[in-house]
Amino acid sequence: MPLTLPPLPYSPESLEPHIDAATMGIHHGKHHQAYVTNANKALEGTPFADWSAEQLCRRLGEVPDDKRAAVRNNAGGHWNHALFWTLMAPAGKGGGGAPNGALAEAINAAFGSFDTFKEKFAAAGVGRFGSGWAWLCAMPGGTLAICSTPNQDNPLMGKAIAGCDGTPILALDVWEHAYYLKYQNRRADYIAGWWNVVNWARVGELLAGSK
Asked: Would you state the CATH architecture of domain 20-86?
């Protein structure tokens, strides 16, 4: 079954003022849709056409050489964005604040405090040269780790590509198309605003599911 664009779990304007409606509409309806369209085009008529985006990312090495770059970029972009939308919610309606329970304990154990984690995660996003992502991953040993990937790579693709082979539980898109209409080149300001819409309950669910 071809890959499909998932609907946003909230209205495009509901993340304002931190992420504007125009950006959300273009980001989801244009950029994400393009990844879906281009991935399906690359996979059409191949045995991989019915694979999920997660399968394609995890088993990228099995995709033929002449298709691999297109699949890496576009199936990767689709998987990354499909996760990203679920990790946000309107401020005060599930978005923002601080994590609690097992997630808070895991963050404190790995980074010392929530504030220190935010500093390190923001630094990973600001420091990503060009376009890419910052990730919080649940590692095989049960700890948490921060990593960053270029373009539409993600940790599912393995350590050789992503530098991290954990399970992503938090993702931040730092491509310019995610913030430029509102923040221009002020990526740090975008990240500062983004904390107000992080859906910590969803991050906690992903952490629990990674074990």
From this structure: Orthogonal Bundle (1.10)
List pLDDT tens digits, range 177-201: 999 999 999 999 999 999 999 999 9
Instruction: Give tens-digit pLDDT for 25-64.
Output: 999 999 999 999 999 999 999 999 999 999 999 999 999 9
Specify the pLDDT at position 64.
93
* DSSP-derived 3-state class of residue 35: helix
Long-range contacts of 160-163 (CB under 8 A, 24+ apart): 161/60
Report the alpha-carbon distance of residue 202 to residue 30 in Å, rounded. 25
Among 3.40.1350.10, 1.10.580.10, 2.60.120.10, 3.55.40.20, name the CATH number for the domain at 101-209: 3.55.40.20
Q: Residue 166 and residue 155: Cα distance in Å, rounded?
A: 6
Q: Give the DSSP H or E segment for 168.
A: strand 167-173
